[in-house]
Amino acid sequence: KRELQANGEEAMALGVFGVPTLRVRDELFWGNDATDFALAYLADENALDAEMRRVDAIPEAIQRRRPA
Prior knowledge:
Helices cover 46% and strands 12% of the residues. It is α+β, with helices and mostly antiparallel strands. Strands 1-2 form a two-stranded antiparallel ribbon. The mean pLDDT is 87.
């Protein structure tokens, strides 16, 4: 039980927000499709840079307004 609590506290400190989450070096990969991304990053830390820049440039289709 102590180990489970310690693991949960470590996950929160790392910023884990879902499962499954894989940690490779200091990067977190989240979701069922994370394994391929994590393996690509493990082989080459720059492997995902171009794709992340491309995805980051996609405009938002809609923004939800938060209640005041």
